[in-house]
Amino acid sequence: MRRWLPLLAISLSTFMLLVDLTIVSVAAPAIAGALHSSFAALQWSVDLYVLVLAALMMAAGSISDLLGQRRVFVAGLVVFAVASLACGMAPNTAALIAARGVQGLGAAAMYATNAALLGSTYTGRDRSVAFGVWGAANGAAAAAGPILGGLLTEHAGWRAIFLVNLPVAAVAVLIAMRAIAESRGSSGGRVDLPGTAAFTLAATLMVYGLIRAGEHGWTDPATVGVLVAGAAAAAAFVLLERGRTNPMIDLSLFRQPSFSTLMFAGAALTASAFAHLVFVSLWAQSILGLSPMMAGLALTPLAAVAFVVAGAGGRLLHNVAPRHSIGWGLLLVGTGTLLGMLLGPDSGWSVLIPSLCLTGLGVGLASPVLASAALTAAPPHRTGMANAAMNTFRQLGYAIALPLLATVSAGQAEGVLAGSGSFADPGAAAMELTGGAYPELLAQASTGTRAAVEDVLRSAYAAGLDSIFLLSGILALIAGGAVLALVRRSPAPSEQASVPDTVAARGPRG
């Protein structure tokens, strides 16, 4: 059993950092009430965490190649634990958002080294099992966030969703120091600070522009200016990377259809399978009146199915080509998300069970294979970079999808509210409604119009959710089709003997 201790430490860290992507969603109403915050402000507590995680992932991968992957992994755990304590003690929204940014720094250090540490620790079938279990942690964590968040918020208070990280991080550090051997990549060179700065600036401006568009509209001059500045920063990043001998990301990798498609697939998976859970959780609490715990438990089917399928996939899909696991997994995610459109104004939470189960099945198939497929699509000296790039794109998918879906949902809800004539400012009402303020809006209605206003609000929220499910489903279907069509077949098992060990750090082969 001792040989599986490294897997335990790595999987614990992965589960913890990915849970923190979505754990805030179900606790949002409680946090907003305690800190007197708006949904838009709380959105930054999610987005800043994801932005820092995504922006620094590749830099953390380069640093780990230079300083040692275990060393960077343990440092990330310590930073994450300290930041979690700061989140749990935050006196106001600004302090919470700042601490979440530091959390993202620690998460980047952990996540950038996970797959590389597994690849250097395990070989043969043990490696397939290890990547399967790690993939199960990946697949279940984001969906489990609302469940754990609901349980902790209801029984221990919202601060517990952050403080629970402390004992988990302590256990992971102890195991890592005793059971994981130090290893380094072979990329060499210096950390690309200019590239990291340009990438961070571009991602932050783009996400801020999307959030601002939801509040002020796409034609708002400041919104347009921020988005244009983000595009300019992205162009500067590309120019910087082209001229460097040791770039943060080797742009020539994107000339390979397999690599580019896998990056798109990683972003699409998190965007389509997980971003909409924030809005489903708000719907369950505000429209259905469920407690935080029950709202979290309503999402259990996705987490449970994803965990079981991903855990079994390492053994059962050992000889299946990665493009099939990823491609068909994304098609299942797309189909499952589209099933969410069965939700109507008077639906209960059970209407989403088929959608959640099918989405969980797709997540369980695709998640464990994405990291390993990205390693195989890159040359031996770029494996650390490929792993970091995949993780970066996965988190960017979530960070960009969240404000975009919020904007689309509010827009659809505004159309319904405007048509009813019940609200003087349907745009503002739609923003409040999709941010979880249904009880407050309903309380403003007079006794004689209360029933009519209730029907309009429920219809508006359902219309907003339908638009979210539709966009998420289409994105996943497009990504799944692209993977099946463009990702090349990986080397057969018999050919793997000639592949360097770092490149073969992957799960299923085909």
UniProtKB/TrEMBL annotation:
InterPro entries: EmrB-like, MFS, MFS_dom, MFS_trans_sf. Gene3D superfamilies: MFS general substrate transporter like domains (1.20.1250.20), Multidrug resistance protein D (1.20.1720.10). It comes from the Bacteria. It is a multi-pass membrane protein. The chain crosses the membrane at residues 42-60, 72-91, 97-117, 129-148, 160-181, 193-211, 223-240, 261-284, 290-313, 325-343, 349-375, 396-413, 468-487. It is found in: Cell membrane. Keywords: Cell membrane, Membrane, Transmembrane, Transmembrane helix, Transport. Pfam families: MFS_1 (PF07690). Residues 6-491 form the Major facilitator superfamily (MFS) profile domain. This is MFS transporter. It comes from Nonomuraea roseola. The lineage of its organism: Bacteria, Bacillati, Actinomycetota, Actinomycetes, Streptosporangiales.
